[in-house]
Amino acid sequence: MITTLSRLLRMRLALMNGVAAVGGSLLFPGSAEAGELCALGGGVALLAGAGSALNQLLERDLDALMQRTRLRPLPTGELTPLLVLLTGLWCLLAGSLLLFAAGGMFPVLLGWGTLAWYLAVYTPLKRSTPFALLLGALCGAVTPVIGWSAAGGSLIDFRIILLAGVLYLWQIPHFWLLQRRHADDYRRAGFPLFAPPAKESGAAPFFQLWVVALIASALMLPAFGVISRSAAPWCLAFCVPLFLAGVRKLEPMLFASLNLFPLLVTAALYAGR
Are 185 and 195 in contact (CB under 8 A)? Predict the structure, then answer.
């Protein structure tokens, strides 16, 4: 049952969201209490889990058509739609209470807004337009903003805008490559493709420009104090292979580098505080 719930809530992704939210909180000057940070991380992780459960409820018919999602709890019959709905609502309630304990009502409202955007805007739109990805990426970018706001930070502070912007830019090439790898799956389910299939040669100039924009914004992180300046050489050392992989179209290397990117940024946030 634990494994089933883990697949329903996509626990690894949910926990990554929680860690990113705590990183956003640590970016704000001042010392947060350990209990508040735990409540913040747990609250965001639960809201992310709620989003995953409710999304799987809405897309259970499409998940059954795709190889990469056909073993999720609803297509396999391990869980009923009612149980998935109740699990999602419980995670939503528990996550909201933890977020409120961590930073008051504003981060809760940010979390609700992100969840509503994901379920009511991105989820239906991605069936009709490939550019829904540009809207859906906003959800991942907001995660550290929730932590920042819980710590008392202003939403117009350039540091949190830059961090959110970097995470937004990261998601586009990441999901571009994911779509290329699973193009047949997405077509089978009727999703319009943002990226050409992997068997088609090359990557669009748009994609390469996006990778360059990601690298440029990442190099701004130490310059503007988002991460420690001592981390600048590591940031540069990571960006060079990312750039070369993008220019030379080395997709396996590029995909691996992009998967590591948010982990390294989050680690740099923690190391500098």
Answer: no
